[in-house]
Structure formats: structure tokens, C-alpha cells
Amino acid sequence: MLNRTILVGRLTKDPELRYTPNSGVAVTTFILAVDRSFTNRQGEREADFIPIVVWRKQAENCANYLKKGSLIGVDGRIQTRNYEANDGQRRYVTEIVAENVRFLDSKPRQDGGKSNQGNDFSEVGYEVDEDVPF
Amino acid sequence: MLNRTILVGRLTKDPELRYTPNSGVAVTTFILAVDRSFTNRQGEREADFIPIVVWRKQAENCANYLKKGSLIGVDGRIQTRNYEANDGQRRYVTEIVAENVRFLDSKPRQDGGKSNQGNDFSEVGYEVDEDVPF
Amino acid sequence: MLNRTILVGRLTKDPELRYTPNSGVAVTTFILAVDRSFTNRQGEREADFIPIVVWRKQAENCANYLKKGSLIGVDGRIQTRNYEANDGQRRYVTEIVAENVRFLDSKPRQDGGKSNQGNDFSEVGYEVDEDVPF
Amino acid sequence: MLNRTILVGRLTKDPELRYTPNSGVAVTTFILAVDRSFTNRQGEREADFIPIVVWRKQAENCANYLKKGSLIGVDGRIQTRNYEANDGQRRYVTEIVAENVRFLDSKPRQDGGKSNQGNDFSEVGYEVDEDVPF
DNA sequence: TTTT
DNA sequence: TTTT
Fold first, then answer.
1. Does residue A128 lie in a domain region?
2. Which of A41, A45, A124 sits opposite D113 (nearest CB)?
3. CA distance to A29, B60, B133, C78, per residue, from A96 (Å)
4. Count of domains in chain C?
5. Where are the residues of the annotated region Disordered (chains A, B, C, D) (predicted)?
């Protein structure tokens, strides 16, 4: 069906890069703090703390370019998993698998936009450089 | 910042309607099964099971019109909470607070769209019935 | 940056399948009618009529499985183009490039969900069938 | 049905604030340049140029705090309109009605998040400060 | 009519 | 604890 999440927020800590034991695929994880747009009863602005998972090249870009406090945009999907905890109980996990991560701590680029500061997701293109549908 | 989730899926069970103890506000909860668009290593299509929370009038509409297996669209935001579990440990919960729920198994409407089959969220309108910006 | 649109609505007419002149890539176009969730001053429910473009295999699936009135979900991005009109003026076009189309006229599937009724976008998988990040 | 668009991009010019002739409601418009995440055949990064409409208090905030080049996040819905052009032809317009605008070039806040730098959308709260659904 |  |  459809499953889409878009977030803008800041990393609560430096990202953690690991590699899967079998295939050696890069995977980076971190928690994103997303300020709410409304305040609570005490007039305080709270935040949601959302676990993010990034795979492959983007995982390495995130590990290289991001740190605690970095502002990013995430476009991804919700994933749920469950596992057996140490106490024998089933534990349920919800996290966002990021398909596109944008770095937003914008010191404006010096190159007029040709490079992309680690935002290198050119493999995910749907472009056909031709023709005009409507 | 930004926090937006859109889902289309089916209820795993009948929705549960309750009222908050102090203010008596209606709140309905259910789990949404969202089929993935890709298959796993065994060629099987898996799903994510995502907790949904709906408040107020929409909570009552959901309780009245939805049941196990109903197909719906959800437009909302991710919320995280944590609480102390019985074993003294902190437990983390991630759920979607639905701001808009659309009922989708329904036959095309016979009334030309005047009624809205329980999808009554007219209070959330941004419409200004006047003028043309661009 | 980020550019994401999610829609649920019905085709206003049968979809149109064409092929690009040079590369012969399949492209399907149609207009999606998306009912608004609020009513206008006259208490009528209006709709937005949004041009959709679908490429490649999904274009052919759409042409094969959809028709006027079909209910679908679209996950894509906004694209703007401009061209010189017959009168010599520049004309501006905004349309949604669908990256994922879901067929929602649910006659429940008979196969327990193994097949996918033309919703075959398995090439867009980010899955790594291994490991547990958090 | 569902209609949701999320964008992150930069204003191509200073925003324009007007007031509707009858009700005197504030409305601000601007074009958002959204860089694509992929490059074209020539290896250049292109952008989409998307018309944004903001109403009421947020319109005034945008006019006060934004200018050409400002980086923002937009959460809104697509709206289509048509009108008769001077040449007697029907012209079709697609634009994003912003329900939530986030200002993103801003330095991390010094006040621990109490204020909100013109991002004052507290009227759109769904919060019930009580109870734990799941 | 396009931002960085 | 999972829908079709």
C-alpha cells in the first residue's frame, strides 16, 4: 500500500555507522529530534525523538557529513520489527528507513549547485530526458 | 520542524474507542497493516504494523465506520512517548497521530459528494472562498 | 532538497499510454480527481484535478489495470516545466511524477497477497534482509 | 481523499503579501525553488519552481521573516484552479496551499525552544495533554 | 519571471 | 497481538 514519512529535525547525537555481518552493507543509525509545531499545557515546545536507519552509500555520507545537532530532511518509510528481549518478552520497534536524506545546515554552496555535499543519491533517478507528457 | 506520515493499509482488528479520564475526550486506537511494495529474500510480501491514534470526532467516526480489514488512508504525524514499564525499565513507544482518516473500501458515492460517510473533518479547513493568488 | 506528494483519488478518464519517440520509454498520463476534505461556502465538496505522469513498467501496469473512476494512491514528486505555446507565450505546467502507484479498488486478493495485481515495483527496494539496527 | 505535499527549498524572490478584497484576509505568495536529487543528461542539477500560497497569520509571518533565498520547509496540499485568460482560453493553475511553513536557515535557537521565530501555528494543535493510548 |  |  502507501507508506511515506517526511521529517525535518536535528540529530540528538553523532550518527553510528556499522556494516552488516554477512553482506557487509553499510548502515547508519541515529535519533532525530523533531520539534513539535504546538506547545503543551505548560506552554513548552516538546519534540519527538524518532529512530532513523540509513543504508548503503547514504549511510556513509551521513556518517561523514553529519554530527550531533545537524539539521536534516528525511524522506522515507516506517518499518516495524519485533524481537525477543533478554527477559523472554517480545519487544516492538518502529523506525524510519530513510530513502533520501538532505543536509540542511546550509552554508550556501560555492559551486553554484553542481556538487552536492554528500547528498549523492543520483542512483535514484526517474528522469527520462525527453518528451513532454501533458 | 516538519513531521508528516501518510499511510494506506488495513486494520488488523476492530478499532478500540475510549475516553480520557479527565476531559472525556474520545480517542480511538488500532493497528494498521501496511503491505510493503517489495518482497523479501523468500519472495514473500511482508507488512508493517503501525499503531494509529485518532482523537475527538474522528475517533468516534472511526469506531462507528471501521472494522477489522477496513482499508483506510491516514495523514498524520509521528509521536514518540516513553513510560516506565512494570519491570522498572523505560519503554519507548512510536505511534501515528492521525489528523485525517479516509475510508477507502467504499463504493463510489451516490450523492455526488455532498455527504462524506463519516469523513467529517470540516473543522480543519483552510479555505478562503474568494480571490485568486497567482 | 525534499519534494514529496501523496494523493488518493480517482481517474477522471481512461489513462493514456504513449512511448517516447527516441528511447521508446513507456509513459502514461491521466488526471486524478482528489476530493477535498472540506466544503465550500455553498456546502459543496469540491475536488482538485491533478495531472499525473507515470514512467516505464508502472506506465504499462497503469494502462492495463486502470480506467476512468479507478481509485488509486500515488506517491511521487512535483515537477514543473514550461514551454512555448502556439501564441508565442511561455506556458507553465505543474504535474506529479508518480514513483509508486497503488491500486485501491479492492476486490480483496485471492492469493493471500503473494502476487500484486500490477503493483510491481520490486525494482525499487531498499531492503537488506539481515540485521537489526536499533 | 488524501492530498499532501511536503517541500524543502528556497524562495526565488521576496514573498508578496496581499489582503483579499472582501474579507481582508492576509495571503502571501511566492515561488519555491526545489533542487532535484538527480542530475540531467548533461550532469546538471535542475530544480522545480513551485508556486506556494500561505493564508492568515502564517502569511504575515512569511512576509515578515522570509526573503529571496530563504530556506524553508512546506507542508501543505495541492490545489488546482482554472480561469478564463485574456485570450478567452481556459488556463489551468496548480499551486501548493501551505498549511505549515518552517523557517530553516535559522541558527539553532538560543532560548531552548520556547519561542518560535515567527513559526507561530499554535492554533493547529491536536494535542490532548493527558493519557497514553497504547 | 527562477533559489543556493 | 497482526490486514487483504
1. no
2. A45
3. 10, 29, 36, 23
4. 1
5. 106-134
pLDDT tens digits for range C7-21: 999 999 999 999 999
Secondary structure E strands in chain C: 2-11, 16-19, 26-39, 45-55, 71-84, 90-103
Asked whether residue D89 is assigned to any structural domain, the reply reads yes
For residue B102, list chain D residues with Cβ-Cβ distance below 8 A. 1-2
Nearest one of D95, D69, D71 to D82, comparing CA atoms: D95
pTM above 0.90, yes or no: no
**Domain residue limits at D47:** 5-119
For chain C, the residue count is 134
Q: Using one digit for the tens of pLDDT, what is the confidence trace for A57-111?
A: 999 999 999 999 999 999 999 999 988 888 888 888 999 999 999 999 966 544 4
Inter-residue contact A51 to A95 (CB < 8 Å): yes
Distance, CA of B14 to chain centre: 13
Residue range B42-50: mean pLDDT, rounded: 91
B44, B45, B92, B119: which to substitute to probe chain C, counting the most C Cβ within 10 Å?
B45
Confirm or reject contact between C60 and chain A (CB < 8 A). no
List the single range of A82-96, A112-126, C95-109, D28-42 with lowest mean pLDDT. Answer: A112-126
Cβ-Cβ contacts under 8 Å, D102 against chain B: 1-2
CATH of the domain at D92: 2.40.50.140
Report if residue B58 sits inside a domain.
yes
Question: What is the rounded distance in angstroms from the CA atom of residue A132 to the CA atom of residue A127?
Answer: 12
Asked, for residue D35, whether it belongs to a domain, the answer is yes
Q: Which nucleotide is nearest to C113 (CA to C1')?
A: F4
Q: Are the Cβ atoms of A104 and D100 closer than 8 angstroms?
A: no
Give mean pLDDT, residues D57-73: 97
Q: How far is the CA of A114 from the C1' of E3 (A)?
A: 14
